[in-house]
Design goal:
mainly alpha; 77% helix; globular
Amino acid sequence: MSTVRAPDFGTGTLSRVCALIHTLLTVEVLLLLTASPGPAALLLLGPDPANLPLAALCLLPLGPALSAALYALHHRSRDLTELHPGRACLRGWRLNAVPALKLWAPLLLWLTVIVFTLTHFSATGLPGWWALLLALIGTGSLLWGAHALVLTSLFAFRARDTARLAAYFLFRHGRATLAAASLLILTAASATALTEALPALLAAPLLLSLLHGSRSVIAETREHFTA
């Protein structure tokens, strides 16, 4: 008589769902811990545009924290018996903190200049269409940053090579760029309509969605740009 072999513990559908939830919660907590106290200090700053440089400094720890979270989510296990998201997150931070800062810091500086210019636009004497152009440049910079964050989190390229690849993939993989744009819109809308803390509390699911939307970018990078 033939028998049906029961699936191993930790490999069923319910186990995979539990593994995903556990991973998301662990990564979320570690992301908030590694990013602090920067965002906490950010809450103490007033909405005065003069505080923009200080706000950028407060956001510096966020880059390595996001990179570590992406690393952990990418290397997550779907087996409930093989879960080590905390270990993966800390390993991602050790590997990617410096490479992420090399890209994150210039991006923050560039965005600070754009936002500061827009908030003082009436004093610049520039024609109105310049404001729209600056907004488009800022949006493109954020989308470039999304690709750069994924690349620097998962691959060991030099900063300049990561920057070039991120710019290349902006148009090479339009769907991945649109997916990143939709996440940016969702993040901005939730922060504006509900609370500014919501994107931080949902950072892990948002980053998992970014990884999902960047599958084509990751696959081409692995196939054509790594040994």
